[in-house]
Amino acid sequence: MTIKERLAIPPQEMRTQEPKARLWNMDEIALGYTEEQAIYEAERCLNCKNAPCVNGCPVGVQIPQFIAEIQQRNFKSAIDIIKETNLLPAVCGRVCPQEKQCQLKCTAGLSLKSINKAVAIGRLERFVADWERDKGVAPPPVVKPHTGRRVAVIGSGPAGLTTAADLARAGHEVMIFEALHKPGGVMVYGIPEFRLPKAIVAAEIHDLERIGVRFELNFLAGRTETIDNFLKEFDAVFIGTGAGLPKFLGIPGENLAGVFSANEYLTRANLMKAWETDAGTPFFHARVVAVVGGGNVALDTARMALRLGAEEVHLIYRRTRDEMPARAEEVEHATEEGVIFDFLRNPTEILGGENARVTAMTLQRFELGAPDASGRRSPVPLAGSEYRFACDMVIPALGNAPNPLLEHFTPALKADKHGHIIVDNRQKTSLDTVYAGGDIVLGAATVILAMGEGRRAAVAINELLGDENGGKGGVSLNTV
User: Fold this and answer.
1) Three-state DSSP class for 114?
2) Packing angle, helices 63-71 and 75-83, rounded to 10
3) Quick check: 417 and 425 in contact, CB under 8 A?
């Protein structure tokens, strides 16, 4: 097939649940490609040499190679290629912002002058990952002979799981310590079931258990055990505790009943299953919910509020839709479901009534000024534009900061003024044999960026422990 013929193939739309139906369940919204859709979409790939899409992937998945296998219906070969560098393909295929990474650099999309016409790399990755799981053909990862070395991984989010997998495959004994009662980090407490089914995360974690990784749950590192004590028992430590400390608005009224951080709200709904009537998880019933923010967490929160019974959900954002950092697909789904977007607004005060419960907010109008350091136009408040907005729940979704617990109990562990652990280009911290990666280093980022840092740390730890191959048959720092 010629390049011209491939470029003429229209992008394949993914099937989804109907908007009205999905508000009454927690089932996954995106239903994935059929086999024929996947092959048809794969045919759009130009099979570039030195493909720019690979450079756009934080873990360096060999994208044209796996897509070429899909073109030939070799789905098992396709997933095997992906798993050489990405150990969470079913997760990444669903929640990674491919439109800002690999698909942004897709030659087909650039040739057609539209990011919407780039090859749907993420959807193809999801397809073969789901195919493998549904067929039950995933073999246990190959593990090298035991080395006798022990590594502690603190945190079971994307960075911790990736580090643990690479270290375990290198033959080291790995134990993951997780503060919550279920492993998975932000993938289980932060991302809703309708975007990322928890059974998929559990299946990925089961693969780690099959190669000997052990999990210690309900274990708060820094409080239950200090880093100094870890170093007495383990040859190396990886810190991947994420960024779980919520940010608030800093305005009057944030202590009223009915104000929740997005973290707490989503944790109750996702990890503690508040949407199940027999879960026994208390949550605050509200009629009109206001979510403040414009990222994926804000959208997840707003869409969850609809499923928990809110009559109206407003997303308050001080810029416009064009500046929203959230994925376009999630914005579209939220719009279909009935989330109301109040752009160029921001609260200045939360108002309460009887029993100190939220009754309203004071909102101020904004206009856009010159671009700021992020490249987005800055929101400029309009004097005298405040007005009262009636609501009975307010949920700030403004991002997260690292939990300061580890830093507080480990004075020699250097962090910046925001609490992010400082590392070198090999993910090594200020402490010998202690490495870190993911949101605790980057700030609130993405699953795939955290995984990239986890892989880089695993290479360095493997070399520290005497595995010159980086623990994975030829993987080196140059590949991550």
Assistant:
1) coil
2) 170
3) no
Quote the tokens at residue 377: 């136009």
The whole-angstrom separation of Cα 109 and Cα 107 is 5
Please state, in angstroms and rounded to a whole number, the distance separating the CA atoms of residues 430 and 424: 9
Contacts of 234 (CB under 8 A, 6+ apart): 150, 151, 152, 175
Taking CA atoms, 249 is separated from 253, 264, 297, 365, 398, in Å, by 10, 15, 15, 16, 8
Q: Is the pLDDT of residue 362 over 80?
A: yes
- The distance in angstroms from the start CA to the end CA of the chain is 33
Give the containing element (helix H, strand E) for 455: helix 447-464
Between CA 113 and CA 106 the distance in angstroms is 10
Predicted TM-score (pTM) of the model is 0.90
Q: How many helices (H) and strands (E) does the chain have?
A: 19, 17
With a CB cutoff of 8 Å and minimum separation 6, the contacts of 447 are: 88, 91, 92, 95, 96, 158, 186, 187
Q: For residue 224, what pLDDT is reported?
A: 84
DSSP state of 344: S
**Residue 456 contacts residue 437 (beta carbons within 8 Å):** yes
Of 199, 240, 255, residue with least CA distance to 456: 240
What mean pLDDT, rounded, does the chain reach?
A: 91
In the block, which residue shows the tokens 């200020």? 430
Phi, psi dihedrals of residue 392, rounded to the nearest 5° = -125, 10
Helix/strand/coil for 223: coil
pLDDT in tens, 68-78: 999 999 999 99
What's the mean pLDDT in 134-145? 85
- Coil, strand or helix at 458: helix
User: Residue 9 pLDDT more than 50?
Assistant: yes
Please answer whether residues 67 and 45 qualify as being in contact, where contact means their C-beta atoms are separated by less than 8 angstroms: yes
Question: Which residue, 335, 308, 311, is CA-closest to 321?
Answer: 335
25-68: per-residue pLDDT in tens?
999 999 999 999 999 999 999 999 899 999 999 889 999 999 99
Query: SS3 of 115, please?
Result: helix
User: In terms of C-beta density within 10 A (0-12 exposed, 13-18 middle, 19 or more buried), how is residue 371 classed?
Assistant: exposed
Lookup result for tokens 């749907």: 120
Residue burial 162-184, b: 16+ Cβ < 10 Å; e: rest? bbbbbbbbbbbbbbbbbbbebbb
Q: Which two tokens stand for residue 76?
A: 């098992």
Cα 201 to Cα 438: distance, rounded to the nearest angstrom: 18
Confidence of residue 472 (pLDDT cuts 50, 70, 90): very low
- For residue 100, pLDDT beyond 80: yes
Domains, the chain: 3-135 (1.10.1060.10), 150-244+401-479 (3.50.50.60), 248-398 (3.50.50.60)
Exposed/middle/buried for 326, CB within 10 Å: 0-12, 13-18, 19+? buried
pLDDT given for residue 480 in this prediction: 40
